[in-house]
Amino acid sequence: MADPFEVRMRFSSQLEHLNASTTSAQKAAQYALKYKDMDEDLHSCILEQLEKTNMNTRANIMYFIEHLLEMASKERHNDYVRMMQRDIIRVVDAVCPENGSGAANVKVVRKVLQGLQTKFILLEQTVIEIEGCLKERDTSANDFSLSSPLDGNDKSAAPASTTDQDVSGSQPTQRNGVSIKPTRRQIEQRIEEDRERHKRMRESMWVVPSNPIDQARKFFAETSGLGEDDRILGDEDIIEFRLRVKDTACTRHRTRGSRREERPRSRPRPRTTNGAPARHYI
C-alpha cells in the first residue's frame, strides 16, 4: 500500500504543473482514480491548491475537474462526483473570487459548468444559481485585474507594500495578502494556454461520438429551441414536399400510358407442327 503522504505530495505536484494540454489533465485524473481509496484526501488537496495557486493554475485545475468527474462517472466511482457536487460553490469562489482577482476565469467556470451539466453531473438548477453569482463577478476587459502590470504611468495607484514583487517574478503583485495584478509571465502563459485550448476546441468540433446516444445528446445540446417561425417554415416545407410527390406520381402515370399506346400490335403467329405449317381441313 502506498504512503498517503507521498500520494498527496505527488498529486499536489501534478496539480501545480497542470497546463492547457489534455494529456496533463488526464494523467492527473488517472492518478486520482488509481488511488481512489484516498479520495477524500485527494479531494481536499484539490481545494487547497485552488486556494493558494495563481489565476492560471486555477483555470487549469478547473478544466482538470471536468476530466476527473467525467472519468469517475464512467468508472462508476461516484465519490469524487458526490464530493465535488457538495463543494462546487467553494471551488467557484476559489477560481474566481469576489475581489475581482479572478475575473478572467469567469468564462472558464461557465464553460466547465455547462460541460458538467451536459454530462448530467451537475443539476440545471445548481448551474443557474452559480450563474447568478458569476454575473456579479464578470467584469469588462478594462478591469484592473486584467490590466498590464507594466503600466508605470498610473500615478493614482496606491503605493505597493513590501510584499510586492517584480513583474518578472512568478507571483502576482499583492497588497494585504490579496492578489491584485497578474505578472507579465502569467499574462504570456495565459495567452499561450488559451491559444492551445481554442485549437483543441476547433478540433473537437469535428469529432463525432462513436456512441449513437452520445451523438444524439450532442446534437440536442447544439440545437436551439423551436420558435413560431420554425413551425411556419416546417409547414411550408411539408406542403411543398407533398406537392412534389404528387406531381412526380402523375408524371410517371402519364409516361407509362403513352408508352402503352405507342407499342405496336403484334400479328398472331401461325401454328406449326414439327416445323411445318399446320393444315386446316374443312
From TrEMBL:
<feature type="region of interest" description="Disordered">
    <location>
        <begin position="251"/>
        <end position="282"/>
    </location>
</feature>
<dbReference type="InterPro" id="IPR008942">
    <property type="entry name" value="ENTH_VHS"/>
</dbReference>
<dbReference type="InterPro" id="IPR042326">
    <property type="entry name" value="Ctk3"/>
</dbReference>
<dbReference type="GO" id="GO:0032786">
    <property type="term" value="P:positive regulation of DNA-templated transcription, elongation"/>
</dbReference>
<dbReference type="InterPro" id="IPR006569">
    <property type="entry name" value="CID_dom"/>
</dbReference>
<feature type="region of interest" description="Disordered">
    <location>
        <begin position="144"/>
        <end position="196"/>
    </location>
</feature>
<dbReference type="Pfam" id="PF12350">
    <property type="entry name" value="CTK3_C"/>
</dbReference>
<dbReference type="GO" id="GO:0070692">
    <property type="term" value="C:CTDK-1 complex"/>
</dbReference>
<feature type="compositionally biased region" description="Basic and acidic residues">
    <location>
        <begin position="185"/>
        <end position="196"/>
    </location>
</feature>
<protein>
    <recommendedName>
        <fullName>CID domain-containing protein</fullName>
    </recommendedName>
</protein>
<dbReference type="InterPro" id="IPR024637">
    <property type="entry name" value="Ctk3_C"/>
</dbReference>
<dbReference type="GO" id="GO:0045943">
    <property type="term" value="P:positive regulation of transcription by RNA polymerase I"/>
</dbReference>
<feature type="domain" description="CID">
    <location>
        <begin position="3"/>
        <end position="138"/>
    </location>
</feature>
<dbReference type="Pfam" id="PF12243">
    <property type="entry name" value="CTK3"/>
</dbReference>
<feature type="compositionally biased region" description="Polar residues">
    <location>
        <begin position="159"/>
        <end position="177"/>
    </location>
</feature>
<dbReference type="InterPro" id="IPR024638">
    <property type="entry name" value="Ctk3_N"/>
</dbReference>
